[in-house]
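Worked example

This section walks through a single chain of length 263. The input is the sequence exactly as stored; nothing has been trimmed or padded.
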Amino acid sequence: MYFKDKVVWITGASSGIGEHLVYALAEQKAKLVISSRNQQELERVKGNCPADTQVLVLPLDVAQFDKIPLAAQAVIEEYGLINILINNAGISQRELVIDTTLKVDRKIMDVNYFGTIAITKAVLPNMIKQKFGQIVVMSSVLGKMGVPWRSGYAASKHALHGYFDSLRAEVYEDNIKVTLICPGYVKTNVTINALKGDGSKNNVMAESTAGGFEPSDFAPKVLNVIRKERREVYIGRKEVIGIYLNRYAPFIWARIIRKLKLK
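Given that input, the structure is written out below as tokens.
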């Protein structure tokens, strides 16, 4: 019961990985704050938790940066502190570079990168004041490599690693931990909700995603990583091999990704 009575704020909590992190944390009696753009779905998730679970439903679009400080203030007013922030909100992409508008690239960066650092900046002063806390960032295996049809998404996840590696060093003396988690394939709506080059939804679940971890199986793995306060972890199957090929055999990996059929 490591998470018992810990205040945990989860973004992207209305579906997929975020939703099942809520359920896993509720089982451990954490005090929860759940955020996403969809209040109705958040209420559904709350309703699926045990009746005695403390859950603050806090609707939030992470790309509306001006509203984030007030949201963080609401969490502090409700619970007095934040033990763990799980930055899980995100959006993916399915398009070639040449066919992707700059507006779509910027939207992906606003949600995946700027939204994540905006919430982190909002909770950081309180964590520094209380001299403890953990910031968890849901990156991707594509935060460590790039592949066709995912340029904007991969770029946004790469940016997170540079930013949070820097932050980890800065807040070490403040007893604040920073954990980067890189999932492989998880069976969620991420490919359905992914943006095409014109900004429309992809509306198709990729075969690779459909064959990934069930989110209910993936969530306990995430909690285990958080409990151990790991710095960076890759959670996946054979797709994780690409990270090591990219690092140790980049010329081989370059030939492989040219032939990947990822649309």
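What to look for: The chain has one domain: 7-237.
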